[in-house]
Amino acid sequence: MKLRKRSRMLEAAYAGNMGAMEMVRFMEVASKKQKNMMERYLEANKWEKAWSLLQKVTGMKLRSPFEKWSPKR
Prior knowledge:
73 residues
């Protein structure tokens, strides 16, 4: 079965939310050094750096909770 049309899925985003599934994936693929870096960023409340690291390591391009956004209707 081929999907002919893609639908845009919206995530539940709010300040400080990285997403549980994304963090699970990060922990599966990240090196020990990257995991330590993530831990330091989170402990220091460096959310944007943590978000960037998560995207870099997992290869997932996610909508940032730090930018203004509204759903298209």
